[in-house]
Design a protein that fits this description.
150 residues; alpha+beta; Arc Repressor Mutant, subunit A; 4-stranded antiparallel beta sheet; two-stranded antiparallel sheet
């Protein structure tokens, strides 16, 4: 723990003597580039958000569910989108609260990388949709503003 954290913790205990701060240095952000078919999305995200988007590249996993979407052209392989259901995310990353997973996925919806369609099913958008995302995944507002979960 650095000197600034120690000083802050000391002052904190003066105001809240029955509470103790616990610093979590392993939590931070991950800078990454998501390479999609028609664009590259650069983002600085939380570790959970990075782990969730990484799952879309794990085509060999037992949770991978290919979904064929309408397309034009002779190359049918390019018409397969990667789709994950909410329960599959929870199983893959560990038993986390559903709300936490939905909020983390909301970051990628806001960035136009994922789309929730239908509810609790997330599709990787290899090609950017016209008009962008709806901007809302339960509890997560476009622009990074978080809404409370109930």
């Amino acid at each position: 723990m650095n000197r600034l954290q120690e000083e802050y913790a000391r002052e904190f205990t003066k105001f809240k003597p029955d509470k103790k701060l616990q610093w979590l240095p392993h939590l931070g952000t991950v800078q990454l580039d998501v390479e999609l078919e028609d664009r590259t999305v650069s983002a600085e995200v939380l570790p959970l958000e990075a782990a969730l988007i990484e799952l879309f590249s794990e085509k060999g996993m037992e949770f991978y569910v290919p979904h064929i979407v309408p397309c034009m052209g002779p190359n049918l392989e390019k018409c397969i989108s990667v789709v994950w259901e909410l329960d599959h995310f929870i199983t893959a990353v560990g038993s986390l609260n559903r709300g936490v997973i939905i909020k983390a996925l909301g970051t990628w919806v806001d960035l136009g990388v994922l789309k929730e369609d239908p509810e609790n099913t997330f599709v990787l958008l290899e090609r950017e949709e016209q008009g962008g995302s709806s901007g809302m995944v339960r509890g997560h507002a476009r622009g990074g503003e978080s809404l409370p979960f109930e």
